[in-house]
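Contributing new complexes? Match this layout with fe (ii) ion.
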Amino acid sequence: MLFLRRFPVASLLIFYRPFASSATSTSSVGIIDLILSEHQHMRDEYEQLKTIDNTKELDSRVRQWIAYIARHGHKEEIAFYPKVEKYLKDEQKGAHHLIEHGIKEHRQLEKELKKLAEQSTVGEKQIHKSAAKLIHHLKEEESDILEPLRSKLDDKFQLALAQQFNDADRLASNKPHPELSRKPEKAPQDNIDVALAEKQKDL
Ligand SMILES: [Fe+2]
Ligand SMILES: [Fe+2]
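Output block (do not edit by hand):
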């Protein structure tokens, strides 16, 4: 499948994970830039997907893309949203609403990603549908949550949150879970429980 043929060699690019997170790594990048770099990776990867005409390669890259997006959202719910809600209290839309809305959008995005993951061969239409939800969420999260936080969190705290975000990698699922709670109080533990159950199944 080919959406655009403008970058014929792009499909040779290796899938990479910017500021690769792991339970053992120490982040030298603050949480805002870390999250932004992961957002950029999701957008870049979508652009690359449009250039791939080999069905098998596209399928594999899309599945890695889904896993990356799912894991990113779960890490935010476990280790980012709960930690920053109080710093957003002065925002016009209200801190709780902002976080609740972010989680609601994660679930909507996960619904589309799950449909995509369940296709035996990933389809162009569903990739675009998922990307539309993704881009919408990234934009809102960046303007309503990340930008206001940049001036409110000092460097030391941003580094500490980045470390916790990286550590949440081992608690997070690679799979979209649209059925998880939309409530900010319940979502972190729901995330941990579902990933734990998955990991036990894989043992
Ligand atoms: Fe995000
Ligand atoms: Fe998010």
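Reviewers usually confirm one structural detail per submission. For this one: The radius of gyration is 17 Å.
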